[in-house]
Amino acid sequence: MTTQLAPDLSQTTEAPPRKKRIALVASKGTLDQAYPPLILASTAVSLGWEAGIYFTFYGLDILHVERFEKLKVASLANPAGPIQLPNLLGAIPGATAAATKVMRKWMDNARMPTVPEFIDMSQQLGVRFFACATTMGVMGVTEDDLIPGADIAGAAAFLDYAADADVSLFV
Amino acid sequence: MSHETPTVTDVEVFDLDCSGLLCPLPVYKAALALTSLAPGDRLRLTTTDPGAVEDIPAMTRQRGDLLISQEDGDGRHTFIIEKGTTT
Fold first, then answer.
1. Which of B11, B13, B22, B23 is catalytic?
2. Contact A76/A95 with Cβ under 8 angstroms?
């Protein structure tokens, strides 16, 4: 005769607790605006969260292998920029390069990682990078132009990821 | 599975000096270090980043580690963090 035993619930393995998630949009391709999404995402994964960044429009330059080391700071129409110039002078040749040089110097003096270094740090801890497919089509960017590991995605795919996020921010 | 509290001599304390580094580096480096430790091991983290006064307690709350002590003075902040069992 077979004895029916109650299932041993003590052996049931519980699913690990769901991780918190942050979903970021990086829409700007200037040096100063590349840092906030990378800082937030690398911090989030350090906290044990999941993190994903959707790079769209000019923000796609942050993933562009030939451009992400050459991001610049606007000297025109940027009253809070690293060099204080009247707009008229902000338009002269060399002003953008000067503002960029000052910002890079600030970052270097503060021992902050460069944008490519932040990309590497973020990827090592599992930050997901989404490259906006429409931006790639509009601006003629190919998959080979982007750093390895970026997922080409449309808005629906990113929203599918962001729907489960606890924090969502647009930069 | 043992639930004994480790005695003081069993606890390993690791040092991490993040002096001169700004957010997010102290949190990033502390998280990397804690990930490599065994539950119950301790990390002594030194920073000069004023943001770390709030950042490190926030990090331990979010990660599930235990903040054992925090000392602030002379522009230097020293934290003893015990690695949690779920991190």
1. B23
2. yes
B33 touches chain A (CB under 8 A): no
pTM: 0.88
How far, in Å, CA of B84 to CA of A48, rounded? 12
DSSP state of A76: S
Sheet holding B42-47, edge to edge: B13-18, B42-47, B76-82, B66-73
- Judged by a CB distance cut-off of 8 A, whether residue B11 touches chain A is no
Can you give the pLDDT of all 87 residues of chain B as single tens digits? Answer: 445 555 556 778 999 999 999 999 999 999 999 999 999 999 999 999 999 999 999 999 999 999 999 999 999 999 999 999 876
For chain A, list the strands marked E by DSSP. 21-26, 50-55, 128-132, 151-153, 167-170
Tokens of A46: 């350090």
Q: Which of A17, A46, A111 sits opposite B28 (nearest CB)?
A: A46
Question: Which residue does chain A place closest to B25, by CA atoms?
Answer: A112
Query: A27 to each of A52, A97, B74, how far by Cα in Å?
Result: 14, 22, 40
Cα nearest neighbour of A107 on chain B: B22
Which residues 40-59 of A are in CB contact (within 8 Å) with B?
42-43, 45-49
Phi-psi region of A119 (alpha: psi -120 to 50; beta: other; left: phi over 0): alpha
